[in-house]
Design goal:
Strand order of the largest sheet: 10-22-21-20-11-18-19
Number of strands: 22
Protein name: ATPase, P-type (Transporting), HAD superfamily, subfamily IC/heavy metal translocating P-type ATPase
Keywords: ATP-binding, Cell membrane, Membrane, Metal-binding, Nucleotide-binding, Translocase, Transmembrane, Transmembrane helix
CATH topology of one domain: Four Helix Bundle (Hemerythrin (Met), subunit A)
Organism: Micromonospora viridifaciens
GO molecular function, one term: ATP hydrolysis activity
Main location: membrane
């Protein structure tokens, strides 16, 4: 550790002690002085005790008066004015003990509020302290040089040592074990294979590994979160308090009761007693405790909220607007299907395309390489690679010229059908050709997040009664996603300016939340009452203007934040309302002369204890979602991983169905049918049987009932029935040829099985696998 690092480490405890003393020092001194006065009183030195209590009252009065005057100068009117009047009143009627008790209560409320402000940004400051300042970069001669972080460029090869913080977003070059808890909130270690993407800010929990930089330091995920932390910790404005909203009614009411008591009785002492019991400590204490509890809880769930005011607004929100890409969808393309020319080899087409694209920084290239590696294809090193922006990449693979990108020339008939198929499905098409003709096409999609539909349901349960999707995508694609996730309205082909206008329109009717992840979402996030950025995807511009940032790439954490915010706000309002109600009863008693100032002060302390205990309930409860036990998470991981193999069988099934539909007389038709039937029997049916036997019974607890999985069990029966039906047709074809009259029924079984299996996999991933905190988008 260098000298600068040691100096920083040594300064942190000192700084922390100074902060704690500044927060709790005044309260400690006032409490000690009040107790000293009590000791003098018990010792018979009543004059000295009164003097000490009077001094305590004056010490508390001066800063309270200054704060109140500043508020009035800014045309702000808060409940602190009652505390000031009560302190002045006790001095005027010489009820110094009552004044000292009020002073301690006011100091307690102020200390708790300062603590709440500091605690609200504690997790953000932790991120600041962990921010890397330098990186280890490989040199051309094979060495390693430590360089400042701002000198790291895209494409640089870095080394991340054990315990190091990953400095920039990039691709791991060797298997790595990472601790992502600080950024994502997940406590379990995560393993990343070579070629997988990793976000900056996570910690290397295993051996050192190589990292190829995918973004510069300024554009990386962690940089955006750090900028958010810097802004949050630099804020000087106090946290918005629920107490000030009640001041408009409570303060005039208190002054009215005190005035009436004075006029009717002719005793100023009664007016002071009313002010003493009306001192708004339930508001000053309950609100900060409940709100800071909510801020701390949402931070642990992977949601960083700037301040208490934003959390309160989140708890009152009724309308949610969401961008599609990166919010409801994964935000990065996925190779959904590979279609080849008649007689072509699907794996070979994907291998050629991925080999050429290895050197391209384009996001589509990364999708092809990722899919090829996921299928275990061995990629070759390309030669003579050239890239033409907007057209594609050309290179030689094993001496063979390969073009990946747009299709040149007039496409053959099969290519026309592929293009129409992609258009209907809302997918992008990447063509793979050699120097003679197109070899095939890879269809890319931006998949809907597995947890999106479940999250939308939870957001409705939390009280958001209007959900709108805004996107710049085409109406057909936007409509498909909207139907899948179940939103109320969809606005397609929406420009950034149109998004801002729509947010402004919705904000005029209700408290509105806007969620987005891209640079074009930043203006809309700033316009909403609460802007939420998907910060884990590296959207630094949107994170800079947002009121909250999801540091984990899971939309369901937004539902957690909404539920926690509503619960914390409900507890705060409940505590404040109960406290004020009891204070009103005490005010009536004081106005009637039944409660002197000293007794009223101690009664108010009892009310404070009651509301504090109630406010502490915000530390727990309020979440509808229950985390599944680790053993069930392991089951979900296992069967989610097996879905990749099932989808590969599905692709072969669809190809076989197309072959039977177009060329039933072809000699390869029955062998292809036999091969796909063998894989269905050997791979798919055992997978479904294992889920039925192991997974579904285990999910009965987290889902609440055995009946929840009954429809999925019925799908297993239908899958088995269709596989048997295909096998029955094969058993009758000993001669290796299909009869024309059996083709329609066979096609019904093949295409029916394809549809049932795809729907079944999608339902499992949305309803069951999304229960697992691990992100299973890549598995799909």
């Amino acid at each position: 550790m260098d000298a600068e690092s040691r100096e920083c480490v040594s300064e942190r405890p000192v700084r922390r002690r100074r902060v704690q003393w500044r927060e709790w020092g005044p309260l400690t001194l006032l409490t000690a002085a009040g107790l000293a006065g009590a000791g003098l009183w018990l010792a018979g030195l009543r004059g000295a005790a009164q003097l000490v209590w009077a001094a305590v009252t004056v010490v508390a009065l001066l800063p309270a008066t200054w704060a109140t005057l500043r508020q009035l100068w800014r045309r702000q009117f808060g409940v602190d004015v009652i505390a000031v009047l009560a302190l002045v009143g006790t001095l005027l009627v010489r009820e110094y003990l009552a004044g000292a008790v009020i002073a301690v209560m006011v100091a307690t409320g102020r200390a708790l509020e300062e603590y709440a402000e500091r605690r609200a940004s504690r997790d953000l400051r932790a991120l600041l302290e962990r921010a890397p300042r330098q990186a280890r970069r490989r040199t051309p001669d094979g060495g390693i040089r430590v360089v400042p972080l701002d000198r790291v460029a895209v494409g640089d090869r870095l080394v991340v040592g054990p315990g190091d913080v990953v400095p920039v977003d990039g691709t791991v070059e060797e298997p790595a074990t990472l601790d992502e808890s600080v950024v994502t909130g997940e406590s379990q270690l995560v393993s990343r294979a070579a070629g997988e993407q990793v976000a900056s800010g996570v910690v290397n929990a295993g051996a050192g590994f190589g990292l190829r930089a995918g973004r510069s330091a300024a554009e990386s995920t962690y940089a955006g979160i750090v900028r958010l932390a810097e802004e949050a910790t630099a804020r000087k404005a106090p946290m918005v308090r629920l107490a000030d909203r009640y001041a408009a009614a409570f303060v005039p009411f208190t002054l009215l009761v005190a005035g009436v008591a004075w006029v009717l009785s002719g005793q100023f002492l009664r007016a002071v007693a009313v002010l003493v019991v009306a001192t708004p400590c339930p508001l000053l204490l309950a609100t900060p405790i409940a709100i800071v509890s909510g801020l701390s809880r949402v931070a642990r769930r992977g949601v960083l909220v700037r301040d208490g005011g934003s959390l309160e607004l989140l708890g009152r929100a009724r309308t949610l607007l969401m961008d599609k890409t990166g919010t409801l969808t994964a935000g990065r393309p996925r190779a959904a299907e590979t279609v080849v020319a008649p007689g072509g080899d699907r794996d070979e087409v994907l291998r050629l395309a991925a080999s050429v694209e290895q050197l391209s920084p384009h996001v589509l290239a990364a999708a092809l390489v990722r899919q090829a590696r996921a299928q275990g294809l061995r990629l070759a090193e390309p030669a003579e690679v050239t890239e033409e922006p907007g057209r594609g990449v050309t290179g030689r693979v094993d001496g063979r010229l390969v073009r990946v990108g747009q299709l040149a020339g007039e496409p053959p008939d099969w290519a026309h059908r592929v293009r129409e198929r992609a258009e209907l499905a809302g997918r992008s098409t990447v063509w793979v050709s050699d120097d003679q003709a197109p070899l095939g096409a890879i269809l890319l999609e931006d998949p809907v997040r597995p947890d999106a539909r479940r999250t939308v349901r939870r957001l409705r349960q939390a009280g958001l009664n209007r959900l709108v999707m805004v996107t710049g995508d085409r109406p057909r694609t936007a409509g498909q996603v909207a139907r899948i996730v179940g939103v109320d309205d969809v606005i397609a082909q929406c420009s950034p300016q149109a998004k801002v206008a729509r947010v402004r329109e919705e904000s005029g009717r209700a408290v509105t939340v806007m969620v987005g992840d891209g640079v074009n979402d930043a203006p809309a996030l700033a316009e909403a009452h609460v802007g939420v950025a998907m910060g884990a995807t590296g959207a630094t511009a949107s994170a800079d203007v947002a009121d909250a940032v999801l540091t984990v790439d899971r939309l369901d954490r937004l539902a957690d934040a909404v539920e926690i915010a509503r619960y914390a706000r409900r507890i705060a309002v409940q505590s404040a309302t109960v406290g004020m109600g009891l204070a009103v009863v005490a005010m009536v008693a004081a106005a009637a002369g039944k409660l002197p100032p000293v007794a009223g002060a101690f009664l108010q302390e009892g009310i404070d204890v009651l509301v504090i205990v109630n406010a502490l309930r915000a530390l727990r409860g309020g979440l509808r979602h229950r985390d599944v036990p680790p053993e069930i998470q392991e089951l979900l991981d296992r069967y989610a991983d097996e879905h990749g193999g099932v989808r590969d069988v599905l692709t072969r099934l669809r190809d076989t169905a197309d072959l039977v539909a177009t060329r039933p007389d072809a000699p390869e038709c029955v062998p292809a049918l036999g091969e796909v039937h063998r894989r269905l029997v050997d791979e798919v049916l055992p997978h479904e049987a294992a889920e039925e036997r192991n997974l579904y019974p285990a999910l009965a607890g987290p889902l609440g009932s055995d009946e929840v999985t009954s429809t999925m069990s019925r799908a297993h029966v239908e899958i088995g029935r269709l596989v048997d039906r295909i096998g029955g047709h094969l058993a009758q074809r000993a001669d290796g040829r299909l009869r024309r009259d059996e083709v329609p029924d066979l096609l019904a079984a093949l295409y029916g099985l394809d549809a049932v299996l795809r729907l079944h996999l999608a339902q499992e991933e949305e309803d069951y696998f999304s229960l697992n905190p691990a992100d299973d988008t890549d598995r799909r």
